[in-house]
Amino acid sequence: MKDWFKILVIGLLGTMMSGCSDINVVKEIHLGLYNNNELKIRLDVTTTKPVDLYAEYWIEGKHPEKYRSVNTSKATSYKLVLTNILPDTTYSYHIVTVSNGDTTVGKTYNFKSHQLPLFLQEQFNAKVAPKATLPGEFNDGLMLINKRYAPGVAYLVDNKGQIRWYHTIDDLGFKVINFTKDKTLLSILGRNDEPTSYGSEILEINLLGDTLLHLKKGQGDFKQIIHHEILKNDKDQLVFIYVDKRIMDLSSVGDAKQDTVNGDGIMVMDKTGKQLYKWSVFDVMDPLKDPKIMKTKKDWMHANSLSYDRDGNYLMSFYNNGQIWKINAKTGKVIYKFGKGGTIKMPADCNFTQAHAAHINAQGNLMFFDNGVEKHQSGVYAMKIDEQHQSSTIAMHIQLPKEIFNGRMGSAYQINDTTTLVCCSKRHIVVLADNKGRLHWTMETSVPTYRAGFIKYEQLNPYLKP
């Protein structure tokens, strides 16, 4: 793949490189790809003296809709990146210089972006349902989707199914990926022979595709396999789920005196790989008291999501026991268990089986994707939890059409009060459902993405805009 990209870059430079002698201080401009990416254009500009300098660019024929590169510091050699590029589109651009308070707009030039590489074409097929009207909020952001096997791809996709941003990795897959408050993408990377959401590397990149952090298992205290979730806390530390392997005497339940039970834990590390906090399900539960331990010992609880409640404590969902736990982030004590056999009383009509992507939504309710394994019908719940009285009520329940039943993986995130973006991973489909379960929009995906997150343009500014 690297050689293929190299050929494209050379071809692009051959057709797009411009030499110029502008009327002021701009001496030369060279144009090519940034990070070998067709949706990011690099301008290398040299000047006769140090000035403040940036590029303005726009789609040809749409001059009022101007975009701007990041302004660089004074120098005589500048590297500018043009983002928000559409494939196979002609752009105009000029260089703007500021010196001694005077602003000068240079000569206008043109370039045409290439089509996306073949392996990125026809990845998503989006359709609006007949007579449906999409909410305005759904036009105001992009979906974050990841390809979990090598070569890995992270995509930002609009509701027309158009790829607006991508990043590729040759030898690993993006097992899990999240957008951070710092406008970066934080991910777990893994090989194809590792389980679907498990990996052994951590990668953080910015929206230019520059690597900000790359940790590999074995560095510092990073000794465990990690899976299903990676976050940043408010101290810019890494928070993730890890596999906790314990050698245990299982002879009392009919197994060997020395056998391995694989549980789950939460770890916090700094960016050097130093462990700062560690919690394990073994701290609060005894596998020997689990009547199913003989069947589940290789993956006892199967934690599949981790997020924060509004008070800073953890929310963690488990597939095998179908529960969502709230865990004190300081003491490790389990505050509540929600689900069958849990500590929170559930309404009679809250009959979810297995959950994914548990989080607190905009209304402050516990929201999650219900795999619906027992009834073979998936859905979405938002629950109002009363911790003081250990009770709950249903704030919202979406029953999805049985045709898109999704027994493993999946996610659900609100777009507004009446519509929810739902990812049915096993069905290779992302849908926009209203609170009655009607589908207003669908997007078939070429990859079984683990989740489909939604990121507003205001969070992506200035790198991506409508």
TrEMBL record:
SUPFAM superfamilies: NHL repeat. It comes from the Bacteria. This is Arylsulfotransferase ASST. It holds the Pfam family Arylsulfotrans. PROSITE patterns: PROKAR_LIPOPROTEIN (PS51257). GO terms for molecular function: aryl sulfotransferase activity. It comes from Mucilaginibacter celer. PANTHER family: ASST-DOMAIN-CONTAINING PROTEIN, PQQ ENZYME REPEAT PROTEIN-RELATED.
